[in-house]
DNA sequence: TGATAACCTGAAAG
DNA sequence: ACTTTCAGGTTAT
């Protein structure tokens, strides 16, 4: 019992290999919440998992439902050997590939990547639960990260099992297909503000629960990168359109209601471990036009053919982990991170003449050079981040009080 | 195959 | 205060 209690553990890792502050907030997973300053938490595999990070280590903690504040029996064995949290963390964060090496490879092949990546290091593709990824990205259509996060949170709150609390905050795991297949779900989700996505979610859940199965979905995984607890197997050679298993997974997902090419690619990349999958959304389409010469002639608009051409081009350029590289440029394009690109440090400089009435009736004049440094994060609550605004005001007195006669 | 409209919502921008 | 646009798209015609 004592071992299962909420204790922090640490894992040595450089920020260039993993940056949770970017990776957990860049629109891959919609379920991480800020549980304290510099701390992210989420229910996963029957426990609440929390992360912190410093320059040299990732710190993690698991809170299990059973870890109540009951004293352990006096002569109970003090070691529990079945705590798989370390293995779960390594699996979920996909820590195997060397990100630094991959960045070097992409930078060598692509000058635009080389230019944009330095401010966005440590972005890693997570290995999320396929079912959660599927429903999460169905929610993402024509939507923003803040609202998607709220919707996914509502799904968990109303249909997912309660795992535990941090403070007063309850943490629920993601609901099963069966839970979301209930006939009342669609109407309820509409009340909760899901809009037209309510029908997509309900239909998809009903089909997966009744006709297909979770096993069906999990079998679409990249065998090199299976769900937690399964042994990896080889997945074949990369082709321009992606490996065969990737194309099969993409095809099968397209049959689901509310799943188009972009959502299918998100599920392939972030839920099924197909690293060559390149979701082409509005951002990526903008990037393709701005930096990769798309948007003219044959590919002047984002049709199905253009979609494939863009994805193929990026696979050609970046190789087997094209989806990982794509995620770096995607994040660099997000408004929530725009202050890094612009290094938004406005420096206002103005000289102000301050007049003060002295008690003795004289007037004191100071010319003050006021330097304001304003740093602001423009987008509010993408996760739960309060708008941070640092205003430093330095005043340099240029001219010492010149005394004048009172009138 | 390629265009176009319709689809929910809510915060930001004008 | 009010209208339009935008947000990690998909479906139907």
Automatic annotation (TrEMBL):
InterPro entries in the cross-refs: DNA_glycosylase, HhH-GPD_domain, HhH_base_excis_C, OGG_N, Oxidative_DNA_repair_enzyme
GO biological process: base-excision repair, AP site formation; nucleotide-excision repair
Enzyme class: lyase
Pfam families tied to this protein: HhH-GPD (PF00730), OGG_N (PF07934)
Subcellular localization(s) per the UniProt record: Nucleus
Residue ranges annotated for the HhH-GPD domain, each copy included: 139-334
GO cellular component: nucleus
UniProt catalytic activity: 2'-deoxyribonucleotide-(2'-deoxyribose 5'-phosphate)-2'-deoxyribonucleotide-DNA = a 3'-end 2'-deoxyribonucleotide-(2,3-dehydro-2,3-deoxyribose 5'-phosphate)-DNA + a 5'-end 5'-phospho-2'-deoxyribonucleoside-DNA + H(+)
GO molecular function: 8-oxo-7,8-dihydroguanine DNA N-glycosylase activity; class I DNA-(apurinic or apyrimidinic site) endonuclease activity; damaged DNA binding
Record keyword NADP present: no
Primary location: nucleus
Record's keyword terms, sorted: DNA damage, DNA repair, Glycosidase, Hydrolase, Lyase, Multifunctional enzyme, Nucleus
Entry annotated with the keyword DNA repair: yes
UniProt record similarity statement: Belongs to the type-1 OGG1 family.
Identification of the protein by name: DNA-(apurinic or apyrimidinic site) lyase
